[in-house]
Design goal:
CATH class: Alpha Beta
Distance between the termini: 38 Å
Mean pLDDT: 94
Largest sheet: 8 strands, mixed
Radius of gyration: 19 Å
Structural class: alpha/beta
Number of domains: 1
Strand content: 15-25%
Number of helices: 11
Strand order of the largest sheet: 3-2-1-4-8-6-9-7
CATH architecture: Alpha-Beta Complex
Helix content: 40-55%
Order of helices and strands: EHEHEHEEHEEEHHHHEEHHH
Length: about 325
């Protein structure tokens, strides 16, 4: 039996018809639905939101405990998702989180369910990630990677972790906090990206919730467990997306694969800093050729991967 599933959607009926069947096929016993309300300045939103909710409801054809957290008004993606997750985790204790543009491999559900149980009482683990932009990171050696990186395109966590959520970036303005996170990461590339992301939140350039979730992980000195292979297709790089309108270089050609069957890492294993550096190099590098090379190396040789990145193996 898979863990409870939290599904988040808004106003894209065609998108939920593509992604919700992956959840339907798993038939979770507990399902928590989060939906924002229509935007007042968008005349078509009311009908689109209504159609999207109806599309989901039409696919609920198995016996399960369903919670519908539907907003009548538009809260914006940041507030709607954050408040919805706060209620969902308080009710469920733990859950697998899927937004409407995320299409998971069937193995994603088993991977998250097993990881939630394995790390349930390991407080330094913040969350579970199914999305891996590297594609396959030495999958014959380990099923998952302890990391300082946590991408929320198909993820899972617990109420014990979410309860520390710093939605207003509490503490970030302190130079001591920034210095502590910089020292904790020991990776200028990653730290600079964190600074950039936090600045967009502070300046209200994005209506985010996930940047704050990653900040919470770093503030608390926790880490994530990331699947050694990518288990997610992100379908959300479209013109009607909230934030992601164009397919970035790191997403092109990235496929979902069956989960690794190698052993799990030790409960107290430290973050794999080579993984973190490789992750962010691929995520931020616009060269498709270099990304393809790094992905090929990461399947077989840790030494050659580190050499290509000028990083210690």
């Amino acid at each position: 039996m898979i863990a409870p599933v939290i599904y988040i959607f808004f106003n894209r009926p065609d998108m939920v018809r593509r992604t919700f069947p992956a959840i339907r096929a798993q038939r979770p016993r507990q399902l928590y639905l989060i939906a924002d309300g229509p935007r007042a300045h968008k005349p078509t939103d009311a009908d689109r939101c209504r159609e999207t909710r109806a599309a989901v409801e039409a696919m609920l054809d198995w016996e399960c405990e369903i919670t519908r957290d539907y907003s009548d008004i538009n809260l914006g993606s940041g507030q709607r998702i954050a408040t919805g997750l706060t209620s969902a985790f308080a009710q469920l204790s733990e859950g697998i989180v899927i937004e409407d543009d995320i299409l998971p491999h069937p193995d994603f559900f088993t991977f998250c369910t097993e990881a939630l149980a394995r790390y349930r009482h390991t407080p330094q683990i913040h969350g579970i990630s199914g999305y891996n932009p590297i594609g396959r990171y030495f999958p014959s050696r380990h099923r998952a990677v302890p990391a300082n990186t946590h991408i929320t395109w198909g993820w899972a966590s617990w109420h014990r972790a979410w309860s520390a959520y710093r939605g207003q970036l509490q503490g970030w303005s302190s130079p001591e906090v920034k210095a502590g996170i910089r020292e904790h990461l020991r990776d200028p590339l990653y730290f600079d990206e964190i600074v950039r992301a936090m600045r967009t939140v502070e300046n209200r350039e994005v209506d985010a919730w996930d940047y704050q979730w990653v900040y919470t992980m770093l503030y608390e000195r926790r880490q994530a467990i990331v699947s050694a292979v990518n288990l997610i297709d992100n379908l959300g790089f479209t013109a009607d997306a909230t934030h992601t309108f164009h397919v970035p270089a790191f997403a092109e050609g990235l496929k979902a694969h069956p989960a690794s069957t190698a052993p799990w890492p030790a409960l107290a294993a430290p973050p794999d800093r080579l993984f973190d550096r490789l992750h962010w190099q691929i995520y931020l590098d616009g060269s498709k050729r270099k990304i393809a090379l790094l992905r090929a190396l990461a399947r077989f040789s840790r030494v050659l991967t580190a050499k290509a990145l000028n990083h210690r193996a």
